[in-house]
Amino acid sequence: MLIFLLRRLVAGVLLLFVISTITYVLLYFSSDGIAQNILGEFATPEQIALKQAELGLDQPLPVRYLEWLGGAITGDFGRSWFTSEPVVSALFNRLPVTLTIVIGALVIAAVLAALLGVAAAIKRGWVDRAVQLLSLAGDALPSFVVAIVLVTSLAIQARIFPATGFVPFAENPTLWLMSIALPITALVFQLVAQAAQQFRSAIIDVRRRDFVRTLRSRGLSEREVVFKHVLRSAAPAALTILSLQFVGLLGGSVIIEQIFALPGVGPLAVLSTTQGDIPIVMGVVVYTVVMVIIVNLVVDLVNGWLNPKVRVS
Amino acid sequence: MKLRSRAALAAMLTTGALVLTGCGAGGGDAGGTPAPGASGGTLTLGSLVDVTSFDPAASHVGHYMQYYQPVYDTLILREPNGDLSPMLATDWEYDDTNTELTMNLRDDVTFSDGEKFDAEAVKANIEHFKAANGPQASTAASIEGVRVVDEDTAVIELSAPDPGILLYMAASAGFMGSPAALDTEGIIADPVGSGPYELDVAATVTGATYTYTKRDDYWNPDLQKFDKIVIKSMQDVTARVNALVSGQINAGLLDAKTAVQGEGAGLTEITNPVDWQGLFLFDRAGSQAEPLGDVRVRQAINYAIDRQSLLDSLLLGNGEITSQITGTASAGYVEELDGYYDFDPKKAKALLTDAGYPDGFEITLPVNSADTIINAAIVQQLADVGITATQVVIPSTDYRNEIFTGKYSLGYYGIFQGDPWVAINHHIGPNAAFNPLKYTDDESAALIKEVQAGDDDAAQALTEYITEEAWFAPFYRVNQLYFFDKTVTVENQLQQAVPSIYNYAPAA
Amino acid sequence: MSEAVVQGTTAPVVVVRSGVVKRLLKNPLAVAALVLLVGTVLASVLAPVLATHDPNYGDLQTVLANPSAEHLLGTDSLGRDVFSRLLFASQITLAAAALAAVVAIAIGVPAGITAGYFGGLFDGSANWVTNMLMSLPGIIVLLAVRAATGPSVWISMLVFGVLLAPSFYRLTRTAVKSVRNELYVDAARVSGLSDTRIMSRHIFSVVRAPIIIQTANVAGVAIAIQSGLEFLGLGDPLVPTWGVMLSDAFRNVYLNPLLLLWPALAIAITTVCLAILGNALRDSLEDGQKIPKVRTTRAARTTAPVASAVSTDTATNAVADHLLVVDGLRVGYPQAGGGMKTVVDGVSLHVDRGEVLGIVGESGSGKSQTAFSVLGLLPEEAEILGGSITIGSTRTVTPGSRAVAQGRIASLRGKGIAYIPQEPMSNLDPAFTIGYQLVRPMVKVLGVSKAEAKKRALDLLATVGIANPQRTFDAYPHEISGGMAQRVLIAGAVSCEPDLLIADEPTTALDVTVQAEVLDLLRDLQKRLGMGMIIVTHNFGVVSDICDRVVVMKDGKLVEGGDVRTILRAPEHEYTRQLLASTLEGKEPMSMLTTGTRA
Questions:
Q1: CA of B46: which chain A residue's CA is closest?
Q2: C440 touches chain A (CB under 8 A)
């Protein structure tokens, strides 16, 4: 177990290193007019030069990168070039919102996918076809298009949900729920699709297995056999798909957060990349990769818990 | 097994809750809850901008004022109607040469860190303001130094008469911070001023929410109308209108397209014609774009624009078309000039032919990525008279810096309609930052000198000159559309994008 | 397989292609999707012809107008005709998506072929790069690229193509690897044709289909991502694309929400159709494996029991007396091309309390199918074609029913009737402990408490001869041996004290020594609990050991049945004799099998 975790960690760190290097190099080429942008139109050439020195923009790429790397390893990602806010605190302030909708979407999608997969696999017939079609649509439709439709119909026209804004749970649980309902729905739509299909195939598959037949012969109810036993063996396939989709989920959440004006990492990512605020962009990239690594790890662990045989490997 | 059923249960509960609470829009009580009376409660504002540094030298005017006013007092207070009143300075007087401004200061003011406000503090602040080279640094350009006469008397020494100084002392240059904090890095996130409120750092999230709480030993309790002020940074107008309509904020700025929602929600609207919008014709000398050097060409551009249609379709009529850059409240305003250029493409073409461009010409037009619609209309209307404009898209975050570097010969922008001297310094004078190609000519230079000396007639003459010489192609004066709910009363602030903090009060 | 490869490599390809397209066109959804997609592409190509207005010309007098005769889809915030803009926007959007797909294929496919063919270092490093690329969230990367290079649809899609390459790489590599393994051996036999030639010809046909499917999916994703970025306002605002139109519409949502509909529809329809097409392509390739639900004709089903070759059982099938009565049972499986394969053809038998019946036959004789029919655990595809089954006083299969009555059999399972499977390891749920799998059914079926059930389970485990019951109780199936697993299964089967126990080849999967022990155990339990038992086996040794009566099945039919001793000593039917003769006991080595026995 420990070795497994260690190996994952090492692989993750390596991944981080490579991705951050590539990103930094990419961004290096965009940092030309930064000093002017930060200081504004009244900046004198001397001010600009001073600012550039302050930000280290006058140094060659390897030096700058190593400096950033050195700081990053110790947990210091520097400060935003525009707001002087420490990158780490900027991210941490926004993380709860993003995590709420992303993890909320994952969990709800997993549950819905399981239910839909069961329905499709067992009922077959028109239920199966309907689920397949919905899955197809859900998978193909970009989540932000779904979000736009939801916002326009349920929030702007019908005024049922708030169109924008995030209410912290501590402030008002009901409003919190209302404020995340639409964003999560938009994200879930796309997630459920593929996962439901996976569940369906896996359930059909597992149901044919010998032990399922034997369990039924013992007198256990069909419901118990399906929900306790079949699902458990079928889950790993679907959860793996969900973890693969997590990457796309992070991307989709960026747009969703913009649409709903949620103070998550998304708007920070968009703003920092349009401004060229490199410390923040690097912070966002690192955070993204870390999230992906963590989620993959968690899914592996969950799969191991669900299926002890997998644990050993 | 357990995971499944529990998760399923959770999902059902969530769905159930959603259904149950589905009726009725959210009506949070994050708004102001004032006691019937003069003060109390929380004022929550939605702001178009985000403050990046609480250093008073970094302050900007307009939208940004709301962030600094709670924590910093200015030397002079500008009333909603534009009049100047005492604040940290009790009275002031120029000498005969108009180059020395003596200011008598209050002696009962302390900063929130305990430091005393005195003439030394004034000196420290103004010197800091100049040295920091912030966005409003040019307003202190004519200040040579501050002479401390005694504890509550300071003399501001000017290099030349500056009719705008008093206004500047009521704005960014006039914010007074504690000298002890001025040069520290801490002041960026934790302001130390003498203002009616203090920033509650714990309840503040950079980029999202700024919370100010009432300061106990403030010298002017009349200005403290609320117990708490919360400013939410909401750049997105959709976010603002939703926050307003749902009660998350008490007041905020909307735009022409969202005003409908504000009205529909029963909010009160006050309008304030702060900016004019239109084309800056930078290259009046024709150094880069030769055609622009000819006044007839610039006039042709003015005739080519269908101001009324633009106003009606893009701003839904929220404004007034105009041909002059001066606002109605300014001393330089000349009413007849509003309609100086009407929409006349034929005349435009004739002028172009006169100037030697019967087939028009080509020109490069920088385009703010957030303003593609208006620029597309401009391109179309210019094309209708033969001027082919090639668009260069500039990211909105870079736009202002880019077009005022002198790279472009013209560009679309919106500028406040200020008092004559302020406007001259800002975008008319030869050294104004918003006159990047530094155009000047004898006539305007002479008029500017007279305005500097305080001659109002000269101001009007200058406006006439600029309009006839088509230095700009103004489209319209735009109404700022400010909305607020029933819990507060608000007064507009002259020539300012949003009301000053002092203009809000709980509704009776 | 080998012949086909060498001779007509092209021939099967041709057959496959037309078959795929034909099947595709039979799918109404796919046809609709294809029509819509082709229509969209055509419309975009013909944009200059179809457009009613200049897409960039804005009429300020009719801003944000609703659809009208003049403007088919209305106008946007500048008064530009939405319909015309949509057409021209299609060009850009579709072209950009195509760019992403082309780049992805151009990078992924050659890399996949190289990695699949050569393996080694390239394969390893390419795998690592692939994993890395797939861990990157597309939007973040595109945002970073945009920060570096500015807004440009083409650069974005180029980079996105790189990000999408891994998927093509993977499927190409898999295809190449599978083909390589197959051909490598065969190719060695063929002279004159080089590896590469065979590889390239065969790869092309194998890889082509997955690539086409993946392209359909990838194009959809590219459109989605591209539109997403433009919607954020990060695209090139001067170029009309669906995303830019969507962004503009959203900004005016309070004034005319209808504007959102058109670009949203364009994006939605295109992406969904691409997905449907991709899916349909995949289905039509795999369709050979799908078995349609065949409606069995009246002729195939009989209501009257078929007269069986053996008359013994018919006479004694007085329902009330026996524990189990099977009367003229017929079971079949619908076939892919229509038609029905009958696996149980008119079987009649009975079992009484306390007696052990053996069902003997070779594989394919239908004995297990009969057993499953009694248990009601036939696979989904199976159909009851006729006959009846009665357990105790409950009719679980009535003449005319197409399946076992689940409602009735369910209440019998565990307590009335139990099952010991053949293969021990695959019949335990790997995710639960042995103990759980023993305790839970008891709690449910017998209604005892968990503690009581645990006690009983431990006793049972001891009874079936497991040395350390507690340890086995706590263990997971993969932690115990085959023999122990079989004992556990036996314990589980008898745990609820069933009246009838059906054991399906209970000793076949076990070592010889264990076999004897298990048989002893079964005999013991049966005597103790007074159960009726059916043992399905192909081994007459087992039959002689434990059974009281035996029936012999061949090709779904019952050929003989009766008392064990009688049958063993004096088999009447030809087939029974052959079966008996083919056991190795007492046989002289190297003697030929008599004719008639299946090879």
A1: A165
A2: yes
> Averaged over B492-499, what is the pLDDT?
91
Residue of A131, A149, A214 to mutate when probing chain C, most C C-beta within 10 A: A214
Nearest by Cα to A106 from A201, A239, A231 = A239
If one counts every other C-beta atom within 10 angstroms of the C-beta of residue C584, the result is: 7
pLDDT of C41-93, one tens digit each?
999 999 898 888 988 888 888 889 999 988 999 999 889 999 999 999 999 99
CA distance C275 to A136: 7
Which tokens is C79 given? 């008064």
Among C254, C429, C436, most B C-beta atoms within 10 A, so best to mutate, is C254
Handedness of CA C556, C559, C563, C568 (dihedral sign): negative
Contacts of A218 (CB under 8 A, 6+ apart): C413, C414, C418, C441, C445, C492, C493, C496
Residue of B nearest to A230 (CA): B1
Size of chain B, expressed as the number of residues it contains = 508
Phi, psi values for residue B238, rounded to 5°: -65, -40
d(CA C40, CA C386): 54
Beta carbons of C333 and C325 less than 8 angstroms apart:
no
Tell me: the pLDDT tens digits for B184-213? 888 988 999 999 999 999 888 888 889 999
| Phi, psi (deg, nearest 5) at residue A307 | -130, 95
Q: What is the rounded distance in angstroms from the CA atom of residue C202 to the CA atom of residue C61?
A: 63
Beta-carbon separation of B206 and A83 below 8 A: yes
The tokens for C149 are: 């290079």
**Nearest alpha carbon to residue B392 among A261, C306, C238, A260:** C238
C2 confidence band (pLDDT: 50, 70, 90): very low
DSSP sequence for C265-329: HHHHHHHHHHHHHHHHHHHHHHGGG--------TTT--SSPPPPS--HHHHT--GGG-SEEEEEE
Q: Residue C215 in contact with residue C167, Cβ under 8 Å?
A: no
Quote the CA–CA distance of C65 and B330 in Å, as a whole number: 39
Q: Classify residue C401 by its DSSP letter.
A: -
User: How far, in Å, CA of C38 to CA of C24, rounded?
Assistant: 15
Average pLDDT, consecutive stretches of 10 residues, N- to C-terminus, chain A (313 residues): 81 85 79 73 74 81 87 88 85 90 91 90 85 82 88 82 81 88 91 83 86 90 90 82 81 87 87 83 88 83 74 48
- CA A226, A227, A231, A233 torsion: positive or negative? negative
Distance CA A293, CA A19 (A): 13
Cβ C60–B367 below 8 Å, yes or no?
A: no
On chain A, the residues whose CB falls within 8 A of the CB of B236 are 164, 258, 261
The ipTM (two decimal places) reads 0.82
A with B: how many residue pairs have Cβ under 8 Å apart? Answer: 124
Residue of chain C whose Cα is closest to the Cα of A243: C135
CB A261 within 8 A of CB B236: yes
User: How does DSSP classify residue C255?
Assistant: T
In the numeric block, which tokens belong to residue A223? Answer: 């419901």
Between CA C125 and CA C134, with CA C130 as vertex, the angle to 5 degrees is 155
Nearest to B452 by CA among B99, B78, B83, B174: B99
Shortest CA distance from B258: residue in chain C: C254
Q: Which of B3, B53, B397 sits opposite A275 (nearest CB)?
A: B397
Q: Are B269 and B481 in contact (CB under 8 A)?
A: yes
* B358: DSSP letter: T
Do B187 and B177 meet the contact criterion of CB atoms below 8 Å apart? yes
Residues near B160 by beta carbon (within 8 Å), at least 6 away in sequence? B99, B142, B452
